[in-house]
Amino acid sequence: MKVKQFATENIPLIGLIVLMAAVSLYSPSFLTVDNLLNILRQTSINAVIAMGMTFVILTAGIDLSVGSILAFAGAVCASMIAADTPLIVALLTTIVIGAALGAASGSIVAFFGVQAFIATLVAMTMVRGLVLVYTDGRPISTGNFDVANSFYEVGGGYVAGIPIPVIIAALAFLVCWYVLNFTRLGRYVYAIGGNEQVALLAGVNVARVKVIVYAISGALSALAGIILTARLESAQPTAGLAYELDAIAAVVLGGTSLAGGRGRITGTLIGALIIGVLNNALNIMDVSSYYQMIAKGAVILLAVVLDGRSKATSK
């Protein structure tokens, strides 16, 4: 019974292990240190965005604007670095801008009663337009100053052989895990997703919590934008397109319910790793990128179906 319970509660982890085992049998080079570090580096951006998305989905919301916020944050950060702005000032300003954009979406949801899907769809479109206006549709190079060289390390550097983006994602995970499991805000997030009306009657300031949750999503999207811009040494106006889909997929693969109130940040990290491993495996197998999208969709559908059945069985 304990084995069955463990399997039911850890379907994403088991899926990740099985996937890695299968790929390693196909290609021995899959489990090399260099390839695993490459997977972690490639996964770090989606993982950071998905962590913020987890907060939103746990409240029974959705945030479609994360890709656009990533692009705008990256453009602003690149222009500040190119202007030789002190690195810490550029990074903090960029994250604050991301949080403000997220909070704006959250305010529309919380105070005007607009559905999260519609509010963030509007935000996604408007912010993407803002990116194109700000960049004039052209990439923004970070330049070749000392600050720019230091900035590159954020996305392309290493510490003790570990890529800095991986370290940043790990730190973001630890903070999110702590907030959701050991703070009042975390309890409120689960309460709102479980039953918003009951949470309201219990004295939870639902509107404020929703604004904070979307601000967290925006801030983490901006952080992901910083990592991507630093790695490329430029901000691309088309950056972040469809990133919201991969982030939502990671959350769903991790076992978080789209209805809210149920899920774990650990599951989201595993979900992001599943997508990263799957992408890497398909590249190793030399599968066309067109088929990769179909394969990812099939895996996500399978995860949702299995998750739904396991929850129905446990009732």
TrEMBL record:
Location within or outside the cell: Cell membrane
Q: Which residues form the signal peptide?
A: none
- A Pfam family that the UniProt record links to this protein: BPD_transp_2
Q: Which GO terms describe its molecular function?
A: transmembrane transporter activity
Stretches that traverse the bilayer: 12-33, 45-62, 68-101, 108-135, 155-180, 211-232, 265-284
In the UniProt record, does the keyword Translocase occur?
no
Top-level taxon: Bacteria
Q: Which InterPro entries match?
A: ABC_transp_permease (IPR001851)
> Keywords on this record?
Cell inner membrane, Cell membrane, Membrane, Transmembrane, Transmembrane helix, Transport
Membrane topology qualifier = Multi-pass membrane protein
GO cellular component entries: plasma membrane
Statement: the UniProt record of this protein carries the keyword Isomerase: no
CDD domains annotated for this entry?
Answer: TM_PBP1_transp_AraH_like
Cross-referenced NCBIfam families, in alphabetical order?
PRK09512.1
Task: Give the protein's recorded name.
Answer: Ribose ABC transporter membrane protein
